[in-house]
Amino acid sequence: MKNFFIEGDKFVGKSTLLQEIIRDVEKSISGFYVKRRMNEQGQIVGFELRAAKELLQKAGNLEPIDEHCFIQTENGKRTRNLQVFETWGKALLEEVKINPTDFILLDEIGGIELLSQKFTNELLTTLQQPQKIVGVFKSDINYQRQKQHTVETLEIERQRAQLKQTILKNEGQILALNEHNFAEIKKQLSEFLKR
After folding, report:
1. What is the pTM of this model?
2. CA atoms of 137 and 116, how far apart (whole Å)
3. Which terminal residue of the chain, N or C, has fewer Cβ atoms less than 10 Å from its own Cβ?
4. Residue 190: what are its φ and ψ, rounded to 5°?
5. Bridge partner list, 50
6. How far apart are CA 139 and CA 74, in angstroms?
7. For residues 193 and 23, what is the distance between their CA atoms, to the nearest angstrom?
8. Strands 29-38 and 3-8
9. Is 132 exposed, middle or buried (0-12, 13-18, 19+ CB in 10 A)?
10. Long-range contact pairs involving 78-82 (C-beta distance under 8 Å, separation at least 24)
């Protein structure tokens, strides 16, 4: 098996689980993760695309980078910037091929980034790379929620199906994470990366 993805409800701890295991296995990593931007009241006000290798750095709280923010809420208005995927996101995926690492992190895919055809093509190419790939695939429930809360059109069912099919090739898997199977999936993921 080469691809190991998890999906699940909001705030179940998908990204936290991945990041914890990544730090534990101490192997080289490429790809990306999504960092939430929070305001002083603890509300989510944006999402930023970050380089996966940052997760291995000892310095904890990395400064926000405005050019990498692809969803932002300001004064109650939500905006999105797909250019982040077409430039920074695409560069992170191209780096996977230039400087191969032990494994690739794709956290999270299956959402608005698929509106960028350039980024989607690069994502599909990345899933063909020989390295092990771990990540989060946006569940159908979370995708439907995102569609409801997006002012602009979000019709990416075809791209999501193509992405899912590519992940599942070569015995890849997408496991649903919940509070009941958290420990078991954590164990499986850890074993997968250590192999």
Report:
1. 0.93
2. 17
3. C
4. -60, -45
5. 33
6. 26
7. 11
8. unpaired
9. middle
10. 78/149, 78/150, 78/151, 80/112, 80/150, 80/152, 82/112, 82/113, 82/115, 82/116, 82/119
Amino acid (1-letter code) at residue 76: G
Domain total of the chain: 1
Sign for the CA dihedral angle at 44, 181, 193, 135 comes to negative
pLDDT digits (tens, 9 = 90+) for 100-139: 999 999 999 999 899 999 999 999 999 999 999 999 999 9
Handedness of CA 59, 107, 172, 184 (dihedral sign): positive
Provide the CA 135 distance to its chain's centre, in angstroms: 6
Q: Which domain holds residue 158?
A: 3-194
Which residue matches tokens 């590519």?
A: 166
How many other C-beta atoms are found inside a 10 Å radius of the C-beta of residue 13? Answer: 17
CATH of the domain at 179: 3.40.50.300
The tokens of 87 are what? 């430039």
Nearest to 73 by CA among 43, 112, 51: 43
Quick one: tokens of 1?
Answer: 């098996």
pLDDT tens profile 137-193: 999 888 888 777 766 667 889 999 999 999 998 789 999 999 999 999 999 999 999
